[in-house]
Amino acid sequence: MGKAVISLTTGLEDTEKVTVAFLVAVGAAEQGRQTLMFLTKEAARLALAGVATAVACDGCPPLADLVQRYAEAGGTYMVCPICFSARKLAEADLVKNAALGGTLPMWAWIGDEPATTFSY
User: Fold this and answer.
1) Could you give the CA distance from residue 92 to residue 120 in angstroms, rounded to a whole number?
2) What predicted TM-score, i.e. pTM, was given to this entire model?
3) Measured torsion, CA atoms of residues 15, 94, 78, 55, in degrees rounded to the nearest 10
4) CA angle (110, 49, 100) in 5-degree steps
């Protein structure tokens, strides 16, 4: 089974887009795929403890539940260090399954294996 990479540029300014990205990531991780969310721009904030807590719409699952399911399924985050620093965020506030890393570490994570990618 190949890896999955979900690239997300949007933060809580568009909770529906964030919810869709997390639904895709949770689905991949819960099926046993190695799954990485590459967070850039405002999405960098989503890897901070206590930030991803919105509910996008009536009937949408709470983002906090999706974040928890993603972590429990072994999903990880790679957060753009340029985006993170530009927002003056603190590395100590990252959730346990998140690390700073740019495009080269992302490609190294993918390696030579096939990877399914989604971009939001």
Assistant:
1) 26
2) 0.95
3) -10
4) 35
Whole-angstrom Cα Rg for the chain: 13
In a 3-state reduction of DSSP, which class is residue 12? helix
Neighbours of 28 (CB within 10 A): 25
Please name the fold of domain 3-119: Hypothetical Protein Ychn; Chain: A, (3.40.1260)
Report residue 49 as tokens.
């403890």
Q: Which residues lie below 8 Å from residue 105, measured CB to CB, with a gap of 6+?
A: 78
- Coil, strand or helix: which one is 4? strand
Per DSSP, the residues of 17-76 read HHHHHHHHHHHHHHTT--EEEEE-GGGGGGGBTTT-----STTPPPHHHHHHHHHHTT-E
**Hey, what are 18's tokens?**
């964030």
pLDDT single digits (tens) 50-101 = 999 989 889 999 999 999 999 999 999 999 999 999 999 999 999 999 999 9
**3-class secondary structure, 10:** coil
